[in-house]
Write a structure and sequence with these properties.
Elements lengths: L1 E6 L6 E7 L36 E4 L2 E4 L8 E9 L20 E3 L7 E7 L5 E8 L9 E4 H6 L8 E8 L8 H6 L30 E8 L2 H13 L5 E6 L2 E6 L5 H13 L6 E4 L2
Parallel strand pairs: 5-9, 6-8
Antiparallel strand pairs: 1-2, 3-4, 5-10, 6-9, 7-8, 7-10, 11-13, 11-14, 12-13
Length: about 280
């Protein structure tokens, strides 16, 4: 899996490192000391988000990414990866040195620094991380976790996991795994004053390829747009398409997606035919 780290010393972007790791993720475990990894969540706090770290857009490997104007309300699902020994002590996009044993992460479009709750949709494990880097610039990966964060949610061995990524602030309630999966209202909680505790879920999510994973192509108010999208998908040979009403909108989805390999193939194909905003949706 290829990763690129960006440095923002007055220029955006300057590529300072290109490293290649095993396809199963950055899993050079023989160069890792698990005992050094943090086990407690990052503690959200309000921090300045200077414009030099958050340009309106930037380009890497021929693709342009648009940094969010605000992280408020960000909640997305996708495939997480992790990065480790090959990047240890290298500069991150924020200028800080990467520490694979800290609870940090890289994201392509969230404003930095910031904090997110990451839920492993396959086992219900959760972690709060501080986003201080840009990436991953591998296609179809939503977030790059530090070794410590990946270890906490149980994704080291395979190198990837289906995750929900939700922006949080110091006064955000921390939703449980069940809340994220079911879409149930989040119960009130005390403001976060220390490393946020995450409840052990009584009934953990267990997302399964071929059953729970879909790709949402878009949501459209007019049926004419829906029909047009269906036709474009059919012309590309994508036939497992469903249309689901959602309020005044109609959600067009592909799936269920059988495997990670099929997900990558479909996402690449959708991007090729112009659906750049397609994203994973896990339904249980």
């Amino acid at each position: 899996m290829n990763h690129i780290r960006l440095s923002l010393n007055g220029l955006w972007p300057v590529v300072v490192l290109l490293a290649t790791a095993l396809l199963s993720g950055c899993s050079s475990v023989n160069r890792v000391n698990p005992g050094e990894a943090a086990t407690t969540n990052a503690v959200p706090r309000f921090e300045p988000q200077p414009s030099r770290l958050n340009p309106s857009s930037y380009s890497v490997l021929g693709r342009t990414y648009h940094v969010l104007g605000s992280n408020d309300g960000y909640d997305a699902q996708g495939v997480a990866s992790w990065y480790g020994p090959n990047f240890q002590s290298k500069p991150t996009s924020s200028g800080e040195r990467y520490n694979m044993y800290a609870m940090t992460a890289a994201h392509k479009t969230l404003r930095i620094p910031s904090y997110v709750l990451v839920t492993n949709m396959e086992n219900g494990k959760q972690v709060v991380v501080r986003v201080n880097d840009r990436g991953p610039f591998v296609s179809n990966r939503i977030i790059d976790l530090s070794y410590a964060a990946a270890k906490k949610i149980g994704m080291i061995g395979r190198g990837t996991a289906m995750v929900d990524v939700r922006s949080i602030t110091p006064d955000s309630p921390i939703p449980t795994s069940q809340t994220i999966v079911s879409g149930a209202p989040t119960l009130p909680a005390e403001p976060v004053a220390s490393a946020p505790a995450i409840s052990a879920a009584a009934s953990l999510p267990h997302a399964v390829w071929g059953q729970d994973v879909f790709i949402q192509v878009g949501a459209f108010g007019e049926m004419g747009h829906v029909i047009s999208v269906q036709q474009r998908l059919a012309q590309a040979g994508i036939t497992a398409v469903s249309v689901t009403p959602f309020g005044a909108l109609n959600r067009v989805r592909v799936g269920p997606v059988a495997s990670l390999a099929d997900y990558d193939r479909l996402m690449d194909q959708l991007r090729t035919i112009g659906f750049d905003n397609a994203q994973m949706v896990v339904e249980q």
